[in-house]
Specification:
With about 140 residues, this protein is of the alpha+beta class. The protein contains 4 helices and 5 strands, in the order αβααββαββ.
Length: about 140
């Protein structure tokens, strides 16, 4: 995927590997918040990135495969205007966007990701998959 190659050259880079346990979600959110703050990105970017990271890590935990090494990996990259988020998990199954009704208790994560990002998608990895998203500063307030 072109974004992977482009984002790998951006000046700001961070990587975090977490155990695939429930505390991974708040840990990933905090990591995103602090890293983007350290990079001096606008608050709107940081808030959007924090929420997107939360949704993607939650999906990785909920749809992971039992018996596979239980880790989730997160990469954050920025060129100062855009933030790229990559979340790896061991499941080869791509995420499926649902049309959750107003009464549904879950199923809105990818709708939130789509609403907050300029683009998002999924790429197969050697093992598992990487779900990626790009936040553009112009989308954030």
């Amino acid at each position: 995927m072109v974004l992977d190659q482009e984002a790998a050259r951006w000046p700001h880079q961070s990587h975090l590997e977490l155990g695939a346990i429930s505390s991974a979600v708040p840990s990933a959110r905090l990591h995103a918040r602090l890293v983007l703050q350290e990079w001096g990105l606008p608050a709107g970017n940081a808030q959007s990135a924090e929420l997107v990271v939360s949704e993607l890590v939650t999906n990785a935990l909920e749809h992971g495969i039992a018996g596979i090494p239980a880790t989730v990996r997160i990469w954050l990259s920025s060129d100062g205007r855009r933030v790229a988020i990559h979340v790896w998990d061991a499941s080869p199954l791509p995420p499926v966007r649902k049309d959750a009704g107003p009464e549904a208790a879950s199923g809105r994560g990818l709708m939130i990701v789509a609403a907050l990002t300029a683009d998002w998608g999924c790429s197969a990895a050697d093992t598992g998959k990487v779900v990626w998203a790009v936040i553009d500063a112009e989308q954030c307030g």
